[in-house]
Amino acid sequence: MSKKKYKIAVIQLNLNDIAENNLKKCLSWVRDAANQGAEVISLPELYSSHYFCQSEDVDNFALAEPLYSTSFIAFSALAKELGVVIIVPFFEKRMAGIYHNSAYIIDTDGSEAGLYRKMHIPDDPHFYEKFYFTPGDLGFKAFPTQKGKIGTLICWDQWYPEAARLTALQGADVLFYPTAIGWHPLEKEQYGENQHGAWMNVMKGHAVANGVYVAAANRIGLEQYLPDTAGIQFWGSSFIAGPQGEILAQASHDKEEILIAEVDLDLQENVRQNWPFFRDRRIDAFGDITKRAID
After folding, report:
1. Which residues are in the CN hydrolase domain (predicted)?
2. CA neighbor of 183 nearest in space, from 80, 278, 51
3. Which of 73, 99, 182, 275 is the most buried (most CB within 10 A)?
4. Is 118 among the residues known to form the active site?
């Protein structure tokens, strides 16, 4: 099972292409990451297509795939060939009328170590995900793999400390956040710096509060597939943070890149021994956290 040290990678890509081309591209980049020493590798959210949630269009449901079909077959074979763990975020067709924003966790032998379905679903201008995705029903999970115990959350989940906490409490060494987040181009000048800063700060906070490594894999590029709209400029800036929130690796805003960092479980334990946040949690006083509001 897990070692005291292992290397993780996030891959930052422009994915504004058809599914077949995106699949070939991602297979190649995963292979490159493995050749650079990565042992657990994550792709960005909804890797196989452009970010179609910019509109509410039933034709986009054709982009979804059933479980254990194209994506699983391809990445399962690659994981087994390379002896690596691969996180593959995809658009899942569960049945007619029920679709999820999901991720396979594929182990080194090509088997499924786990399946995660995105729990928090946004509905913002040009991020109309509630039209497409049923909220996840598998809960928050940490998945044992041959390389380490990892947790996988997806994009909008990154804003919720409860999601990070519940995953970390199950023993995850790393929280992976496959992501598709960017600027509305017309708002970037006014709000862009604060939006990007908040995105990084909240996940670094999860790393600190839980003593875990955090890895975010975003896409890049202007995706402007709708006429008469400015599209979304995905801001890249993928990163890997250590258990004190320290940035171990960070990508640019506009280049395709592989980021690699080492997970050191002895360091993680030392951090938790010196910052014993889990020890001091007042779980007897947290009952109201399950309420929508405390009136």
Report:
1. 6-265
2. 51
3. 182
4. yes
pLDDT category at 109 given cuts 50, 70, 90 is very high
In a domain, 31, yes or no: yes
Domain, as residue range, for 227: 5-274
pLDDT attached to residue 3: 74
Position 247 in a domain: yes
223 inside domain: yes
With contact defined as beta carbons under 8 Å apart, do 158 and 217 qualify?
no
Q: Give me the catalytic one of 7, 39, 45, 93.
A: 45
Q: Is 53 designated active site?
A: no
- pLDDT at residue 151 in the model: 98
Structural domains counted in the chain: 1
E strands, the chain, are 5-12, 40-42, 85-95, 98-106, 112-117, 142-144, 149-152, 174-178, 182-183, 213-217, 220-223, 232-235, 239-241, 247-250, 257-264
- Specify the pLDDT at position 1: 52
Identify whether 168 is part of a domain: yes
Q: What is the mean pLDDT of residues 243-250?
A: 98
Q: What is the pLDDT of residues 55-94, one digit of tens each?
A: 999 999 999 999 999 999 999 999 999 999 999 999 999 9
Residue 95's CATH number: 3.60.110.10
Total-model pTM = 0.97
Secondary structure string (H, E, C) spanning 79-101: HHHHCCEEEEEEEEEEECCEEEE
Is the confidence at residue 120, as pLDDT, over 70? yes
Whole-Å CA distances, 128 to 74, 92, 124, 226, 264 = 29, 16, 6, 14, 38
- Please state at what angle helix 161-168 crosses helix 188-210, rounded to 10 degrees: 30
* Average pLDDT of the segment spanning 159-176: 98
